[in-house]
Write a structure and sequence with these properties.
The complex is a heterodimer of chains A (176) and B (539). In chain A, 68% of the residues lie in helices and 0% in strands. Chain A is an all-alpha fold. Chain A is built from nine helices and no strands. With 539 residues, chain B is an all-alpha fold. Helix content of chain B is 75%, strand content 1%. In chain B, strands 1-2 form a two-stranded antiparallel sheet. Classes of the chains: A mainly alpha (176), B mainly alpha (539). Chains A and B meet through α2, α4, α5, α6 and α7 of A and α8, β2, α10, α18 and α19 of B.
Chain lengths: 176, 539
């Protein structure tokens, strides 16, 4: 049964203690490296020292993060906390999807990779009807045409485009 | 008058007109889709606007910011799900109206109230601009440092019950912006000898990770919801007539929006809360609030739409963003070497007024668009969540990769996306990280410049504006400490009231042992033994 302190806590309970612990340990670890990672310059005022603002940031992280950890109404990590951590870990799959997309674009080209990526990820998310596959493909084309062709954002042409014949090669590198 | 004419001249371009149209329609669409929001859209579009003129780029972003709340009212009223976070209060009175068969009335009233709030704030600020132009030059390095510090403190204390972790996350933001080459002494800070960290951590990478990628992860891991939308019939103009019957509530709510928008770190939520409370207290039928009261809907929608224009004041006049969206817009100024601050108000006043006029035109465009296209627009509410996640993930790539074509940037953005996802799962605030990053950078530069001319600590606040800002900081901190102590007192009282004896087996045994050892126990045992002895005497 939860007590008054737990009921009044703002935010989710699950995973809270693990996050606070990791945050404080990370902050303390970085603060311990401050002598190695920043410089103290002689004959310079405290506020102009290169070390001053990292110390303010990390000091704030350690003190406020530590107080947050101390004020938490829970002292033990429960199985629900570990369940929450597993949910965080599940997101790594989509991080990998994103990074594969990032690595593939300069090699295979923006248009071909987007045309593969969007429908395949939509398929993975459970949208398998013809309608949704069509919408995914249409969305991929619209994104590439809008950003690369019209807005000319800086995305390099794929290495695969080098194998295209003369005029088509420069057309694809510039627009897709 | 000359000022307004020269401002109109800046806006009389086809690309600005197109930006206005794209910003207004795009903003409404983005606002109407629950789970996207203006922050995600602005984060994705930010790098694309770098190649545009500052006025064009800022008009697109301002358009999305200003019009998303109009769109956010649609799902809030029709399906009880706010399109953007600031439309949460709209559901209180908007959805009950739909439930009793008046969705058209609720929508048209929300549009009219939003329009009034938007136009009121722009007119206020155009009239207020000359005063700002006179006040802004009074802000030197130390005043800007103190204003940035005040903004950061306000953001932290605004998260009631979470101020410790909000402060820790703001400190994390301050730390992130220090990574890389220090520009004055040319020394490395926390680069771990890695070349990709020498240029520092880019704000846009962090923004895209924390807002766009994290939202994509949230949507990809969520379930699709089935939504049933009521068909709207009839015209949408009755809201304008109904708004005219409540001029006091509308004007006061818009006034709260303007005032709260100008204070860094406060924003829409406080403005809405204050205007809703005011409307309820002064209403003849306060019992109707939360059950479909038109005054409640007017208060919520007017105040939140008055904020965007006002939020531009600290950004343009002092170069200090008050919340995440204006922090993103600051990077557009920096990319074009336009430094917002007192000099912008002195030298480019027409540019500032042009931005306000753009917002004014935008409000008109959005209202016209919504009055005629709502029926078609409500279909976007039906886009399934996980497919939306796929779309945001794809669009986030454009935002991060087009910045420097760097795979490391994408990896860092993915890392921040993961952090943002964890923070969202834990219901922790993300905004303090962004403001810590932006305001931390401003504070570092301004404090260094200010301290060069300060000999004693009190010299720092010897100018009137600096003294006022310092006094406000002290007052805010004191009021926060008083509030924390009051919360602690009420918690203690509640704990004492609900305290009861433990029912565990160990505690029962302990109580039995104590009872046996007390004087009363001894008396009872003595009496029992006397009775036992008398009983035994009979045998």
């Amino acid at each position: 049964m939860s007590n008054e302190r737990e009921r009044r806590f703002v935010g989710q309970r699950r995973g809270q203690l693990i996050f606070a612990l990791v945050f404080v340990v990370y902050a303390v670890g970085l603060l311990a490296l401050i002598g190695d990672q920043t410089r103290w310059v002689e004959k310079t005022k405290l506020f102009a020292q290169p070390r001053f603002w990292p110390a303010v940031g990390l000091g704030g992280m350690v003190i406020l993060g530590g107080l947050h950890l101390y004020r938490l109404p829970w002292r033990r990590i429960s199985r629900y906390d570990w369940g929450e951590v597993r949910k965080w870990a599940a997101v790594v799959e989509y991080v990998l999807w994103f990074m594969i997309y990032v690595v593939a674009v300069p090699v295979l080209g923006y248009l071909p990779v987007t045309l593969i990526f969007v429908p395949v990820l939509a398929w993975r998310m459970g949208y398998r009807s013809r309608k949704m596959m069509g919408i995914s493909t249409g969305f991929a084309v619209v994104v590439v045409v809008l950003f690369k062709t019209f807005l000319s954002v800086k995305i390099p042409g794929g290495m695969i485009y080098e194998y295209l014949p003369g005029a088509a090669r420069s057309f694809f590198i510039l627009n897709f | 008058m000359d000022l307004i004419l020269s401002s109109i001249d800046i806006l009389m371009r086809w690309d600005v007109a197109l930006a206005l149209l794209v910003g207004s329609v795009g903003g409404v669409l983005i606002g109407a889709i629950p789970g996207v929001g203006p922050a995600v859209a602005i984060a994705i579009l930010l790098p694309a606007t770098f190649s545009m003129d500052p006025i064009v780029g800022l008009t697109v972003l301002l358009g999305i910011y200003g019009s998303s709340m109009y769109g956010g009212a649609i799902p809030a009223i029709l399906i009880n799900t706010p399109g953007t976070a600031v439309n949460a209060l709209t559901t209180y009175d908007g959805y009950p109206m739909t439930a009793r068969g008046e969705p058209r009335r609720a929508l048209s009233l929300a549009y009219s109230a939003s329009f009034f709030g938007g136009v009121f704030s722009v007119i206020c600020l155009i009239l207020f601009a000359p005063v700002l132009a006179r006040v802004a030059p009074l802000f030197g390095s130390r005043e800007i440092f103190l204003a940035a510090l005040l903004g950061l403190i306000l953001v932290v204390v605004a998260h009631r019950g979470q101020s410790l972790i909000a402060g820790a996350l703001a400190a994390f933001g301050i730390f992130i912006q220090t990574i890389g080459m220090e520009p004055v002494k040319y020394s490395q800070r926390y680069t771990f000898d890695q070349p990709f960290l020498q240029g520092g951590v880019n704000l846009i990478v962090v923004v895209l990770g924390l807002f766009a990628l994290s939202q994509a992860f949230v949507l990809l891991t969520s379930e699709d919801e089935k939504t049933r939308i009521t068909k709207l019939r009839g015209g949408m103009f009755q809201g304008l007539r109904e708004l005219a019957r409540h001029p006091r509530v509308a004007t006061v709510s818009a006034g709260f929006g303007v005032l709260m928008g100008m204070i860094p770190g406060v924003g829409e939520f406080t403005a809405q809360f204050m205007s809703y409370t005011y409307a309820q207290r002064t209403s003849k039928r306060p019992q109707d609030f939360g059950r479909g009261a038109s005054e409640g809907l007017i208060a919520a929608e007017t105040s939140n739409n008055a904020v965007p224009a006002a939020a531009m004041v600290p950004l343009l006049a002092l170069g200090i963003p008050g919340e995440a969206l204006t922090a993103m817009m600051l990077s557009v100024f920096y990319v074009h070497n336009v430094v917002p601050g007192p000099t912008l108000f002195q030298n480019d006043m027409d540019f500032v007024v042009a931005l306000y006029l753009a917002l004014l035109i935008l409000n008109v465009l959005v209202l016209i668009f919504l009055l005629f296209a709502t029926n078609a627009l409500i279909q976007v509410v039906k886009i399934p969540n996980r497919f939306l996640g796929v779309c945001i993930l794809t669009l986030s790539f454009v935002g991060v990769y087009s910045l420097r074509n760097s795979v490391t940037d994408c990896l860092m953005a993915a890392g921040f996306g993961l952090l943002g996802y964890v923070l969202k799962r834990l219901s922790m605030p993300v905004v303090p990280i962004i403001l810590g990053m932006v305001l931390g950078g401003i504070m570092e530069v301004k404090l260094r410049a200010a301290m060069a001319r300060v000999k004693e600590p009190f010299d720092f606040i010897d100018r009137p504006v600096a003294f006022i800002l310092f006094s406000i900081i002290v007052l805010v901190l004191l009021s926060h400490i008083v509030r924390v102590l009051r919360d602690r007192k009420s918690l203690k009282e509640a704990e004492w009231q609900s305290k009861h004896r433990s029912t565990s087996f160990g505690a029962r045994m302990f109580r039995r042992k104590s009872s046996l050892l007390t004087g009363r126990g001894k008396v009872v045992r003595a009496r029992h033994s006397t009775l036992f002895r008398r009983l035994m005497d009979h045998f």
